[in-house]
């Protein structure tokens, strides 16, 4: 047998092994995703059967209302992950978003308590939120710090500023805008629920229905190709962090309306935000974060917490389940990334 024929046979064998390995990874990822969806369906079915009033119209609308704050925050996190890439260690992430919301809520409530109107207070809260987002962008894009470390540092900055402003106390607030958000309704749906519906529609259209969204996915998925195509990668990555800050500010207004005050401890929402943003990849055909997937995961987490509440199960279990969901999503994306890399 000649050397050239032997070399050809070895090459064909290697290609077959690589193809088999890739197919195995894709099959494994598919099994894990289908298993996850089946588990979600089983959990919902259990709540339908055993949780009293779980499927009532009032309860479902209440879940949407309770999910509004988490949803707005999760959209900000999802935009950062899309623009920075979904790699868990080096990709886009904003660990400061919940603390940023707490700071914005403190600014908003403090200004209202000092007698300033809704307009100035809202503008100030949004300005602070976007400023914190810009600080994240400066650290990640300008200084080249890993997003995980940069946003962790900014998290502590925002949390410290909130405690300094409020002296770790509850700051009560009331205003016409808060009154509308608390008691307003349209077509039998509360204002908070409408806030989530409208915000979801805007984010889905912007990210999935415009050229801007397509460029954002290109920047996060293939940054070198995006640069070659003339897309300003630093601008888009920076924009996602500023957008995340804007989402934190919007969520702060919603949380002040729901609690009638700014309260310490907003950072506890971070796990839920991460779970919602990452879990959305399970509902994506290509295992990438999407706004629609994030909405589904937000509602799932809301239904999960609601079902536990109706069953008189401690809410602390929700945190454990969310942690398990994050591990599950990381496993799924690792499978998917491995299959793509071996093609």
UniProtKB/TrEMBL annotation:
Classification lineage: Bacteria, Pseudomonadati, Pseudomonadota, Alphaproteobacteria, Hyphomicrobiales
Localization of this protein: Cell membrane
Major location (coarse): membrane
Highest taxon above the source species: Bacteria
TM region(s), chain numbering: 30-54, 66-85, 97-116, 122-155, 167-187, 193-214, 235-257, 269-288, 295-311, 317-336
Keyword entries, A-Z: Cell inner membrane, Cell membrane, Membrane, Transmembrane, Transmembrane helix, Transport
RNA-binding in keyword set: no
GO CC annotation: plasma membrane
PANTHER family, sorted: ABC TRANSPORTER PERMEASE PROTEIN YPHD-RELATED, ABC TRANSPORTER PERMEASE PROTEIN YPHD-RELATED-RELATED
MF-aspect GO terms: transmembrane transporter activity
Official protein name in the record: ABC transporter permease
Organism in which the protein naturally occurs: Mesorhizobium atlanticum
Keyword Iron tagged: no
Membrane association type: Multi-pass membrane protein
């Amino acid at each position: 047998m000649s050397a050239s024929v032997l070399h050809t046979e070895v090459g064909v064998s290697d290609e077959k092994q690589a193809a088999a390995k890739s197919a195995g990874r894709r099959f494994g990822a598919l099994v894990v995703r289908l298993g996850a969806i089946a588990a979600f369906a089983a959990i919902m079915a259990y709540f339908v059967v055993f949780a009293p009033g779980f499927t009532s119209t009032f309860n479902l609308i209440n879940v949407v209302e309770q999910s509004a704050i988490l949803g707005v925050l999760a959209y900000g996190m999802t935009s950062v992950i899309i623009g920075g890439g979904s790699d868990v260690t080096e990709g886009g992430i904003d660990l400061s978003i919940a603390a940023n919301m707490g700071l914005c809520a403190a600014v908003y409530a403090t200004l209202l308590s000092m007698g300033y109107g809704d307009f100035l207070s809202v503008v100030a809260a949004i300005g602070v939120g976007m400023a914190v987002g810009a600080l994240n962008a400066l650290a990640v894009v300008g200084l080249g710090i890993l997003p995980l470390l940069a946003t962790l540092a900014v998290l502590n900055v925002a949390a410290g500023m909130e405690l300094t402003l409020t002296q770790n106390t509850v700051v009560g607030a009331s205003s016409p805008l808060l009154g509308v958000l608390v008691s307003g309704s349209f077509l039998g749906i509360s204002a908070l629920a409408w806030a989530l519906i409208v915000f979801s529609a805007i984010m889905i259209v912007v990210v999935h229905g415009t050229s801007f969204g397509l460029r954002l996915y290109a920047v996060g998925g293939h940054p070198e190709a995006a640069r070659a195509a003339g897309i300003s990668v630093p601008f888009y990555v920076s924009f996602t962090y500023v957008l995340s800050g804007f989402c934190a500010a919007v969520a702060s207004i919603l949380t002040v309306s729901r609690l009638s005050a700014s309260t310490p401890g907003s950072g506890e929402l971070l796990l839920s935000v991460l779970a919602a943003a990452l879990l959305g990849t399970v509902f994506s055909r290509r295992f990438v974060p999407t706004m629609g997937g994030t909405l589904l995961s937000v509602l799932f987490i809301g239904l999960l917490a609601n079902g536990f509440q109706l069953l008189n199960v401690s809410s602390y279990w929700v945190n454990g389940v969310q942690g398990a969901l994050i591990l599950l999503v990381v496993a799924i994306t690792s499978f998917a990334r491995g299959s793509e890399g071996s093609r």
